[in-house]
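pipeline stage [seq->struct] | target=Triosephosphate isomerase | organism=Lachnellula suecica | residues=260
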Amino acid sequence: MARQFFVGGNFKMSVVLCGVGREHAVNGSVETIKKIIGLINDAKLDPKTEVVIAPPALYLLLAREHLKPGLEIAAQNVFDKPNGAFTGEISVDQLKDSNITWTLLGHSERRVVLQEDDQFVASKTKAALDGGIGVIFCCGESLEQRESNKTIDVVTSQLRAVKEKVADWSKIVIAYEPIWAIGTGKVASTEQAQEVHAAIRSWLKKEVSEKVAEETRIIYGGSVSEKNCKDLSKQADIDGFLVGGASLKPAFIDIINSHL
Ligand code: PEP
């Protein structure tokens, strides 16, 4: 079974403003989120590509109201408890109630800055899947870990924490995002990305099942642009992209259409 190409846009907390000859990031706002969505709605998109965008939590409902049907919205995070006194958190049921069908989990910015560990990310993954929403599960190594040849160990231990809690992988998209490539302009080479994606797929085959290995989308994230997406998309084990900075620009459309 061919895996459907998948492109996610992680808006993070910002948008990019393009000026004459320069661009800079500012906080997202009602106006800028509507502009980006307008750009996506008006573009001719590859109908075979699944597209999911992840605006900041405050704008999830606005995004759902404006984004055209057939394209989905992800939260950038969700909590692992169903309800209660958890100030500042959002539950899976609240996402579902708002027609938000996906969540990102385990983004390195949350693992590093907010110190979320593998167990907590896995527990949130289980909560999301049990509640019926899809998970874009991010994993990836730091530069130091890559330079000491620990890439596969790091990525597979992040995945193992999920395996210990989750049986059904059908709603998981794995996003391999080397930390050194996120927001740095330093994209992994096609060979580096393909090598890790293939290693993740063989880990799935050995540790989960052949079917899960065959069917799970493994997407690449880290400085993906309209320039490098074509080559990356041709790799056997790269099934799409998670896009940060470029998801806020017209380049996002080229990336969605990179598999045409
Ligand atoms: C990300 O935030 O998931 C990401 C990949 O960012 P960027 O594309 O800007 O490197």
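stage status: PASS
auto-comment: The first strand starts at residue 6 and ends at 10. The longest helix spans residues 190-207.
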